[in-house]
Amino acid sequence: MDYVLRQLKENPYSRRIMTNLYQFEYLHSGALDPCCYSMTYNVTKDAAEDRLVLNGVLNQRSQDVLAANNWNVCQYSILLMMVAQVNDMIPGELVHVIADAHIYDRHVPAVRELISRTPYAAPKVTLNPEIKDFYDFTTKDLIGPSFDLDVSYRDMEVCEMEQEITVTNGRMKAVVRKTGDFGIAFYFDGRFLTRCGEKGTAYVTDAEYEADKLCDYNGRNGRSSQNENYIREMLSLDVGEYIYGLGERFTSCIRNGQSVDCWNRDGGSNGNQAYKNIPFYLSSKSYGVFVNTPARVGFEVANVSVRHVEIAVQEEELEYMVIGGSEPKEVLSNYTALTGRTPVPPAWTYGLWLSTSWMPDSDAQITLDTIDKMKEYDIPLSVFHFDARWMDDFKCCDFVWSKRFGDAKKLLDAIHERGVKVCVWINPYISQESYLFREGKDNGYFLKTKDGDVWQSDNWMSGIAIVDFTNPEAVRWYQSKLGALLDMGVDALKTDFGERIPTNVVYFDGSDSAKMHNYYPYLYNQAVYELIQEKKGEGCVFSRSATAGTQKFPFNWGGDNEASYISMAESLRGGLSLCQSGYGYWAHDISGFCRTATPDLYKRWVQFGLLSTHSRLHGEQSD
Q1: DSSP strand E in 375-507: where?
Q2: Which residues are catalytic?
């Protein structure tokens, strides 16, 4: 598609509206005769570059039609469609493919289905300009990650009329405009939802931007090119329409007027940064829009244009899904049917959780005395949580109990005898001071630099490395360390961190490091949650970072708030926002993580906390 997109930029007519695959195919398909295009190519193996090379030729009919109209862009798009439908290519064989001219009707659904079924096997077309009739195609793996979606295909009803094309899929309908400016309007049960078009769809780049150079009246040499390319879409808003969701956000729940950057950050609860960025928004008109990429996504909600939601990705394609429903609840149900339902956590998780907080002097006796004091005060306690300092300082994570707790197995048994479950704090970072560092380094279990070294940072513990969850062996290694804790008697694991994931690293499976920044929490929480289910048959994680689909591994809490009424309101907005983004369970640090609450604030926050789905008393400086 790189060549195709370059052609789109260079063609003034195409530049206006042909900026994604659907629109591009549609524009040309109506002008082609209802004939067949065919191509025969020989499959060979290029051992030097470990790739399959397809040397092929169009039939004469195809060459004549394309040459007569000088449709190079359309030509290579048709070839791309044909190659994308070739499965199980074997070196040495001849493959003959016939493609119908009506690309919009036939090829786009076929290619979309193929890519969905085999997401890492879609080919990329490249041009050999020295050969006139033959074209060099190379199959190249699509670089992950991609969201794990439960996509079911059904036959769509397509009806082409003089002015428009309608595509009906169940209760949803898309109406594609054939005349005038390109546009697609979306309907649910005949009710209008939103539309794209009106010069909203664009391929945006700063590369070779001549306008700045020619119109620079200040005598400068023009701005430096960053070679950044974006696909932008703009979806219409109605009068009085409000937008919600986009993850756990601590700003106003109504997103109108906000600029939202879907990029996970460890930024606390008092700004526009978020631990849990979900590229899904919910409209007050009972529909939702899901942008199907874990990459960084920018949303300008009634901001740049008060009549639109603007969506932009720094990619060469933008795929979004318009999800309908008769009411917001049904929209969320349809969205979670796509991205994953949340399992119901065990009944004991709904009780009160009490934490050691960050008490450096906590030990076995203090722990048992604290639990006994709760019983003395007649306060029902369900879970006791050991936070970061259950391990020795600077050795996180080695998953070894500090000697302060003595016989850890004996301590956990004593807690269980009191009818209380146990949770411990973990994260995916391994300090260089941990005995696990050498083991992980020698076996290639950590993220690496481009030079092949272990990527390290001092941003938390000294010389931390990060577990590479795209490596199956690394997952099993990490799970084996946690499995020993579960076998000892731990019931739940608090999966902290996972936001500060670097983008200048190399993953075991070759994943795109920019996309992995947001997607990392999915793999991290999946590995831990599945281990708990395997070992215990039930249980939960208590996670901070998330992306679309992480709701399958319940549940989440709201991160580092502070002991103030303002922060309590921020926490409430964060929880409402997360639940409007497909999450069913959520907690927060009752009374605030930072500093100590006043008595009046503590009482009020406990009331709020006990009405949340899950409730934990926890703080960095709680008395």
Answers
A1: 383-386, 421-426, 429-430, 465-466, 492-495
A2: 496, 499, 560
